[in-house]
Amino acid sequence: MEEQTEVVQNNTAKDRSPKSRCSENGPAENRSVENAFAGNRSPAGRKQDVHVPGILLAAPASGSGKTAVSCALMAAFQKKGLAVKACKCGPDYIDPMFHREVLGVDSENLDLFFADEDTLQKSYARHGEGADLVITEGVMGYYDGMSLDSAEASSYHVARTLKLPVILVVPGRGAALSLAAVIKGMVEYRRDSGIQGILLNQVSAGLYPRLKEMLERELKSSGHPIPVLGYIPRDPAFCFESRHLGLVTPEETDGLKEQIRKAGDILSETVDLDQILQIAESAVMQEEERTDRWGSCDSPNSRKNPDGPCIAVARDRAFCFYYKDNLELLEELGCRLVFFSPLSDRQLPEADGIILGGGYPELDAGDLSPNRSMRDSIRRAIEKGIPCLAECGGFLYLHETLQDENGRDWPMAGIIRGKAFPTGRLSRFGYVEISRREGAGPGTAADSWLAPGEKIRGHEFHYWDSTDNGSSCTAVKPDGKRSWNCIHAEKNLFAGFPHLYLPSCRKFAERFVGKCRNYQKTLPKGD
After folding, report:
1. What backbone torsions phi and psi does residue 393 show, to the nearest 5 degrees?
2. ∠243-249-254 over CA atoms, to 5°?
């Protein structure tokens, strides 16, 4: 009922929005970096208290119901008239889509592999500005981090960094006194666990009062007077369908809004919302004021430049996995974003660069392939030199053929001379650091994207593979114990399975924007 994971945080999410067109100005959530902390200034380099009422929903393990409970709580609080915002721990794309479906606003990824603690604090404060409540959904088990024996980049690490009070969602089906042992162990495992409330999932109305009384008594007797805040009954409203990359996306789930509305109505009766708000009010972190989000606002590539390069971003139900931070950084660097649909549009819009994000082209191959005019349009543009970033699903689309789950091969754009095919299992998944392949000499195509010694962070999560994954770069797991060659890097193309987090290597993003700017200057429009 929630993210699909490995020992390392590995949720890859998806944003299947078949609303094929978006505003040229990019996501509606965007606002100027200079105003991100308006009314909350302090002298440069000084720490200040930032009050963003919020909670983090965690659980002992994946499959505990965090996504359903998070969405239902958002709906319940919105019904009370609160301005609610959402966040998601880790690199997941799909769960934030459910948050957007409920709230109508973007959800923020909070990921301590991609960002350092100071940057995360800044991102959270910026995202939470103006909210009455920010609900952050955890990832995996509360303490599960980047390796089997590490809490680094875990939900616990995020909660500690942001000083967020934690509410633990505990599956209660088939257990009684044992629940006290589980909760006590979670609370005591770290002295600064931050756990301030308990929600019992899959518990009946008849049993709940006795469970609440017993658990609060047991916790108090062991020195942890933590309240049990309510229960989630077994009801279809809390059941979301899953498939190979996680939850089925909101756009493909009939009646989802009504389902989540019903779930919110149920929690309004079974959960103490007022007590949750009281807990959320205790969230106060210290944040160091800076001039902007990613770097100096004095960059000549500032988003203030109305004549900056235009980047065409594929966005429909087949291409929908995008980090909001990536798009915002490109806008900050002066780019204008225009969204298009490889499924329904006939040709690439006029642009100076292309981004083909992740998603589910493998499930839509039978619709992508017949749109030959779009395939030809993208192939011709790349062959003429337009800069292009292609990640995972976008990388699959650039192949000569893409095999669907039934074994049928579909012609694709034909830029990558190879075949993409299903493997039936996860391949090379998890966090990675990507650098230019060792031994590649200066002046290579990869060098025009990543300088020697530079690294950009990313994430892989895919059940399809390629006969030619590329060898321009090397991907290394965070523990350094596994690595592999990846990426097709040409002067104007950077394509492979990793989903990149652009703020982790600003120079990479600046080079891409520079390539788009040069293309803008040298190629007459309409070519």
Report:
1. -60, -40
2. 105
Amino acid at the residue 494? F
| C-beta of residue 43 within 8 angstroms of C-beta of residue 462 | no
Kindly name the residue from 320, 392, 473, 505 that is annotated as catalytic: 392
Nearest Cα to Cα of residue 75 among 262, 203, 236, 254: 262
- DSSP of 87-146: EEESS-SHHHHHHHHHHSSPPEEE-TTTS-HHHHHHHHHHHHTT-SEEEEE--SSTT--S
CA–CA distance, 215 with 234 (Å, rounded to integer):
20
Average pLDDT of each block of 10 consecutive residues along the chain (527 residues)? 34 32 31 27 48 94 91 94 94 80 82 93 92 95 91 96 97 94 97 96 96 97 96 89 48 70 96 97 65 38 64 93 91 96 96 94 94 97 97 96 94 96 81 83 70 92 89 91 92 95 96 95 60
The residue among 419, 410, 416, 417 whose CA lies nearest residue 369 is 410
Q: How many whole angstroms separate alpha carbon 312 and alpha carbon 351? A: 6
Q: Are 132 and 125 spatial neighbours (Cβ–Cβ below 8 Å)?
A: no
Q: Is 392 a catalytic residue?
A: yes
**Closest of 496, 501, 509, 413 to residue 457, by C-alpha:** 501
Could you tell me how far CA 500 lies from the centroid of its own chain?
Answer: 11
Distance of CA 446 to the CA centre of its chain: 26
The phi, psi pair for 252, rounded to 5°, reads -100, 5
Instruction: Report which of 250, 313, 306, 251 is spatially closest to residue 26, judged by C-alpha positions.
Output: 313
CA–CA dist 518, 352 (Å, integer): 9
Q: DSSP letters of 176-225? A: SHHHHHHHHHHHHHSTT--EEEEEEES--TTTHHHHHHHHHHHHHHTT--
Would the CA dihedral through 384, 353, 10, 486 be positive or negative? positive
Q: How far apart are CA 414 and CA 400, in angstroms?
A: 4
Give the Cα separation of 213 and 208 in Å (integer).
9
Whether the CB-CB separation of 26 and 326 falls below 8 Å is answered with no
Give me the residue label for tokens 């077994």. 234
The residue type of 313 is V
Map 123-138 to HEC letters.
Answer: HHHHHHCCCCEEEEEC
**Distance in angstroms (rounded) separating the CA atoms of residues 56 and 357:** 29
In the block, residue with structure tokens 């291409």 = 319
Decide: 305 and 330 in contact? Cβ < 8 Å.
no
Residue 122 near residue 73 (C-beta atoms within 8 A): no
Query: Residue 374 and residue 262: Cα distance in Å, rounded?
Result: 41
> Is 239 within 8 Å of 67 (Cβ atoms)?
no
Q: pTM for this structure?
A: 0.73
